[in-house]
Design brief:
Layout (H helix, E strand, L loop, with lengths): L2 E6 L5 H10 L7 E8 L2 E8 L2 H4 L2 H6 L4 E7 L15 E3 L5 E9 L2 H10 L10 H16 L7 H14 L2 E9 L3 E6 L8 E7 L2 E7 L2 H7 L2 E5 L4 E6 L4 E5 L11 H6 L5 E2 L2 E2 H19 L7 E4 L5 H11 L2 E2 L3 E3 L11 H11 E3 L1 H4 L3 E6 L6 H12 L4 E6 L27 H8 L3 E4 L2 H9 L11 H4 L9 H13 L5 H15 L1
Parallel strand pairs: 16-17, 16-20, 20-21, 21-22
Antiparallel strand pairs: 1-4, 1-10, 2-3, 2-4, 5-6, 6-7, 7-8, 8-12, 9-10, 9-11, 12-13, 14-15, 18-19
Amino acid sequence: MCGILGVVAKSPANQLLYDGLLVLQHRGQDAAGIVTAQDNTFHMHKGAGLVRDVFRTRNMRSLVGNMGMAHVRYPTAGSPESSAEAQPFYVNSPFGIVLGHNGNLTNAAQLSQELFRADLRHVNTNSDSEVLLNVLAHELQESAKSHQLDPAAIFNAVSSVHRRCRGAYAVVAMIAGYGLLAFRDPYGIRPLVFGCIDTEHGVEYLVASESVALDTLGFKLVRDIAPGEAIFIDEDGNFYSKHCANNSTLNPCIFEYVYLARPDSVMDGVSVYETRLNMGESLAIKINKTMHHLDIDVVIPIPDSSRPSALQLANRLGLSFREGFVKNRYIGRTFIMQGQQRRKSVRQKLNAMSIEFRGKNVLLVDDSIVRGTTSREIVQMAQEAGARKVYFASAAPPVRFPNVYGIDMPTRQELIATGRDDDHICHEIGADYLVYQDLDSLKKDVRRVKPSIEHFETSCFDGNYITGDVTPEYLAVIEAQRNTGTTLSLAENSTQLDLSLVASD
């Protein structure tokens, strides 16, 4: 999960991009980067940390030009501590290209070998985004006519990228001297929207991971970029689009609606806030059936993403809704923190108010339970605050499988629900009772907002990997890397995958 932006404006783009990154900060806290274009020259600044820490006044002054792109990084591939893997990435041939990517390529190791041996391109980091950039650069070179590009050649290159790259990817790229390119994988797993605004100097365009970036910057949402579609906006503001993949289907990641996206975003025509209200209503129905014997005094959300679900749940059950935890706004999202840092920051992030817990049977509502670390700490905090009984409800089903499409859920050993039933999980987090949302109900909650969505990417709940290339051998390799605490190079990763596949024959 990362956040990406791209803009073609009629005035300097640097402030637009900075403000947009602040709005998308929830999608990545590891690193941030902005690139602007003026004539045929790129101006880039990027680094590790939050947006407010990476960019200073002197950096912003150097980012000149009316066209640009930006990225906030949450690492799911490569090295989380490596500042060299902050995006956007740049290659100087052909033309000069910069690229930012949200998602994860499942065949990055294979592509890295192809790039080196067949395409004569070198990948310098362990980032799959650099792989994707080099694949795009090679295909643009192959499609160029007399060393020149036009929209048809650019879309032809994207079609070739779709044929070669597997996994989930939403991409924004700039081609020096030409314009801004954005495209989405053929399954539509990761989100990407675009909008426009009429100015006295002409139409300006903005591409973003979430519609909330358009809203706050004054752009009107036009629509989502469709699965397998590419859009290209040249330097003069002319807009082109084309479907570049055969047999594309919409399979949005359902975890975006559960947790990742901001509630005020609309993605694939679906209000995130409305889906979370629906999740609370469905959860209330299940609780009414399975927990009617429990004496619940009050419903308390785990701020912030579970608040709509908890509020709707309390209304449906006729229970009191109270804010029992106060959140420190200056601590990042613990889900996207690393190991020990996540455990330590839970109590720095939340503080329980004893007045809402003392002597009460409380029902805590959270958006999901992933590793269980946060849930265990929160239950303990409620107990220490004086709660008589602590019941726990998850607005999402049990997370039992790794996610390989851009969310940091890489190993089954780290997921508390793997190999455990609900009673065992309840014991592990220290609660008196635990209830999960059902997957079918979760899908219906989203479809109630937009019935035309037939399929979702739900691999972390059901182990169904829709790209069809995620094998047990593939999962074994990435889990081995995670468990040993090492990061293999793409070349080493490719070798291990080859050996695993041979061993499985």
